[in-house]
Structure formats: C-alpha cells, structure tokens
Amino acid sequence: MEEYNKIVRDNIPTIIENSGFKCETEIVSDEEALLYLYTKLTEEVNEFLESKDIQEMADIIEVLYAICDKRKMTRDMLETIRQQKEKENGGFENNIILKKVYK
Fold first, then answer.
1. How far is 88 from 81, CA to CA, in rounded Å?
2. For the segment 72-84, what is each residue's pLDDT rounded down to a tens digit?
3. Torsion over CA: 53, 48, 78, 71 (sign)
4. DSSP letter string over 43-59?
5. CA 28/CA 48 separation, integer angstroms
6. What pLDDT shows up at residue 44?
7. In a 10 Å sphere around its CB, with 0-12 CB exposed, 13-18 middle and 19+ buried, how is residue 47 labelled?
C-alpha cells in the first residue's frame, strides 16, 4: 500500500481500478480542495522545472484552471487579468534581466 493524500484528476481512481488495483478516495469541499490544489501546483511546477516537459506545463495550466473554478473565477477572467498585466508591464519577449536599481 502506498499513501498519497493528494488531489488527483477525476478519472484517476477509475484508471487505478481498471489496472487491477484498489484505491481509497475522499470527496472534500471546495475550500479544502483549494488547499490540496495549492500543494498540487507546487508539485507540478517542480516537475516541470526538473523535466522541462510540455506535458508538465499542461498540468500546471490544468491546476490553475481548477483553482480558478474553486475560487468562482472564470478562465476568461484569468486571461483578462493576464492581458492587462502584459499591457501595463510587458511580457517576457525581450529577455531583460534586472540587475540593480540605484536610488
């Protein structure tokens, strides 16, 4: 038996059982799920940083979308905010590294 105690995608329990294993799950509230999602986001970012794999990038986006859903925010709201920040502060196209600020 391995213990995970982490949030997983909705089809994972079925995939596990179809593989001939048994699993124990629990359904939690949106508020509690958010705590697990924040941990999952860290996990997915770390996996991406280690592998640089586009699959991990997709997982990061999926977790961010789930956080939006639980916080009653639409994906469009997230994209609008991202676009506003890009308009105000720019993106990362020019590879600028800020070294120092003098006062």
1. 11
2. 999 999 999 999 9
3. positive
4. HHHHHHHHH--HHHHHH
5. 27
6. 98
7. middle
What's the pTM?
0.89
Beta-strand ranges (E) seen in the chain are none
Q: Give the Cα separation of 81 and 87 in Å (integer).
A: 10
Residue type, 97: I
Token pair 């999952």 is at which residue?
A: 40
Question: Which residues lie closer than 8 Å to 39 by C-beta, 6 or more apart?
Answer: 6, 7
Distance CA 11, CA 32 (A): 19
DSSP structural state of residue 80 = H
Mean pLDDT of 48-70: 98
